Fold each of these.
Amino acid sequence: MRKIKEIARLRFAAGRTYTEIAAAVRVSRSTVQTAVSRLVSAGLSWPLEGDEKALEASLYPTKPGPKPLAVSLPDFAAMRGELSRKGVTRRQLWLEYRERETGGLEYSQFCTLYRQWRKTQDVVLRFEHLPGDKLFVDYAGLTMPVIEATTGEIRTAQIFVATLGHSGYTYAEATWSQNVADWLASHVRAFEFIGGVPAAVVPDNLKSGVSRAHRYDPDINPAYQDLAIHYGLSVLPARIATPRDKAVVESAVLVVERWVLAPLRDRQFFSLAALNAAMRPLLAALNARAFQKREDSWQIVFEAVERRALRPLPISGYEYATWKKAKVHLDYHVELERRYYSVPHALVGKTVDLRIAARTVEVFHHGQRVAAHLKGSYKGQFTTEPSHRPPAHQAVIELNHERISRRAEAIGEATAAVIRAQAERRKHRDETLRASLGILRLTHDFSPEQLEIACQRALDLKSVRASWYLETQR
């Protein structure tokens, strides 16, 4: 209206041409002609009377709105609920509506009015994320090809993206897959990249992170929960089919695809390490890139505000482990990959949880760790902790040649010599123990003194079978 007033003054009071007025007001000549035509049609001249609102109403009268529909409208709120049910379509609901309302809306008008109603309902709540509160994680839809140097086979690399809610500071890397091992390893590297730990991580409902998706009570993958416990953070999965719950990372994925992956589209990579090396400088440039309407960047906001809001990284790094259930056998061992590990004998017949790391196997019962072993090195190997055996078994297992030798020395030198000779003439440890126990058991039938004499006689005869010698002397 301010420019139209100036056009009216220059035309009616000063008598300027359309070209002069257009140059003075800085609009096109056709715009000046249209404005003057409207002023003349409305019977207005200079000076203009009234306020700008009255002037606008005179020059641009409101067009009459559409006539109200003569038919009843569908219940759009109920229609929205029906459409959320599996298999229900708009056409099906329209057919049911036409059965109730003869001469009602046509299908195209039915859909148009429903879309207009939806626009009035889908009001967006803008979240303000606190510094250090949430890290949003997801995989990009775009993948990158990597050529195997030896075979020439082309493999597809997945792109993991993590972004902080407050600053938008973003991390991205390439991995071979989206399985649990790669998923957790990417989290660890993301925490190291930002130099701290957020209060919560917000993933999508990827199977590597969420075993069973649920709106209110999802089941977190045990290995993912293990990582959360190690870093002392919470896992808050986004709701199913609700991209607004993770709009921050959805936007970050789009930006990474445009500013990191797109510039690399024509390059060839022969290893995952080479691809990640090429991504790093582009990612750094992305984080340092100035906003369009602000002078700062993700990097500046992160360094100034969010870095100090993160909790420090734990002293020891997270070690990836998988979980498996196992039943305790009668020999108080559990089996894993044809290797056997002991647990306390009281757990025979019980089901326990195995935490399997790169070098260790831990056994848990009702959440309490009851055993820990180094991984066996070959199939069929038994790894046994002596304290896990029942007392009677411990007594048998603890029986060894050294203990038997001490018992023989208490009887006499000759007996001890015969016992030592058993180890020299027999090949297997159990055979040696059995023969030695057979000799010492003779003290039940004869006195220790008689056994000592017999053993001396056996040595003189250069035969250590003292039991045979005693049997011949009965």
Note: The CA atoms of residues 22 and 28 lie 6 Å apart.
Amino acid sequence: MAGACSGHGEIVRITFKLFAMLADHLPAQLDGHTREGNALKLDIAEGTTVQQVIDRFSLPAKLVHLVLIDGRYLDKEARATRALAEGEVLAIWPPIAGG
């Protein structure tokens, strides 16, 4: 998990948030950024996709249920092609059962 995701171009900074049991996948510190609750600032290569971030943190596919970028839902099919931009917030929720 060390270093930015592979790619070309500039480095962009995003906020990566994991909720419920997924938060266990966030390290306490990475690339000089300290985890704040369930959020971590990430420096990634320009053009890095949502799926590349998911893969970088080895998130189990069955637990990656609700994916939001700046509060907007992202379809599962778009994860492999949607590149993240400077300042965006990527939030991922597992399936949640309730009653």
Note: The chain has one domain: 11-93.
Amino acid sequence: MSTEVTLFWLLLPVAAVSGWWLGRRSSLFSSHRKSGLIHPEYFKGLNFVLNEQPDKAIEVFIRMLEVDSETVETHLALGNLFRRRGEVDRAIRIHQNLIARPTLNKEQRAQALLELGMDYMRLGLLDRAEGLFLELVELDLYLKQAYQQLLDIYQQEKDWEKAISIARKLEAVSGKSFNPMIAQFFCECAEIAMAEGNTRATKDYVRRAFSSDPNCVRASLIEARMHQQLGKTKLAIRSYKQIESQDSDYLTEVLQPLFECYRQLDRVEEFVDYLRMLVNIYGGISVLLLLTELIAEREGEIAAIRFISDELKNRPTVKGVDRLIEYALAKATGETYEHLRTIKELTGQLIEDRAMYKCKNCGFDAKLLHWQCPGCKSWATVKPVFGVAGE
């Protein structure tokens, strides 16, 4: 109710001035025109406010605001306020009423079209909103806002070709580069093409993604998977390994497929050396655990336990401790075994409950990697979590 009261007190001066002004103009209220008295509708609306009848009060005040060049801004402000409060139907009614008025100039009508489009966006009526924003483009007015909303619509509809086209136009009018986002749109197209078995189209979209953003990790991953599916294992390794120079935070995403590639070529020792290099330079528990597993296979569990223990002294993590306990359980007996098993259950629960990814932009937590953040809709901002509870 506090918001509504605030709204009413903001409207009261507007309504008072409007009532005075209408009283001056209207022959119906000639007596008020002579005396300059406030329009009686104002007192009617005030009475509704005092009797806590907000809907009726708002309707009275809106009715008093006759649409002309002097009140357009007031109507737009009211409509915007209603939309922000979630009363989108009222906002739509105000904006539609504005657009229908022949007295509006081109600029004012365009502004009303923009606001009405935002109303439809709020309701999820994307087709209606798209039509209004395209009309603004034809009018060559409010281009930046119209392109931004169209870009949002085409992303929601997953119409990536249109999204690419609009992003390019938005770049031109805003002076801001959208290349990293456009690269993600090309990656979306590449994913679809690869799922359809269209290798040529996949290659072309990946190439265009790299052209937009040479550091696009996702494009490298798609390219590597494509090479792997085609049996071009060496090319797949090259694509996977270039992610290290693009953004080392995503190295965790390539470890298993890269291991498969080296194993297919019977070059696992070379992969072990690569993992050792990654551990020394970047750390990361996923790299450490895979390397520990390979050491256990080749040198035995004693060597693996010694290796992971030394590493955890410098970079302790929950996952690392969990693996170390797992090795200790294999050799423990009696009461020691029971204690270790209890600790293992606790570390396992911590790992299971903990989000492994977080959006750098809005802080959204996720169990899986999302290329577009489900929270803020930003692209390539969700990354593995680092630290004691993460990597």
Note: The chain has four domains: 2-174, 184-266, 282-353, 354-391.
Amino acid sequence: MMYFAAVAVIIATTLAFVLFASGESDVKNIEFLKNYGWETDTRAVEREEITIPCPLDRVYENYNEIQLRAGLDISRYAGKDAVRFTYIVKNYPCDVGEEVRANVICVGGEPVAGDIMTVSVNGFMHSLRFDDAKK
């Protein structure tokens, strides 16, 4: 009986830690996105651990062009482990016929990069700058 109680306490503690940690990240990330004019859901719909390549490969070099447009520079984080959070955008300025998402890349728990995109084959990706949105 004590074994099951101990396991239950461990599971509950782990779950509370994960939910609290995720909530703290969501608050920082949502504030980061608000600084660019974006409104999103309050919780990430995706969370993925990534490693930013060192040196940056062609994909990340192209991605960094998007970052530079928003005043960010992901090349400073080459070789670092990161987490990509994805949020649903609620205030995209026009109907593009599908859900619009905001990605935020965090290193050490701090937002350092991001983009606005759709997931369809004919979709788009642009910088976090609100005025880069299709109008």
Note: The chain has two helices and five strands.
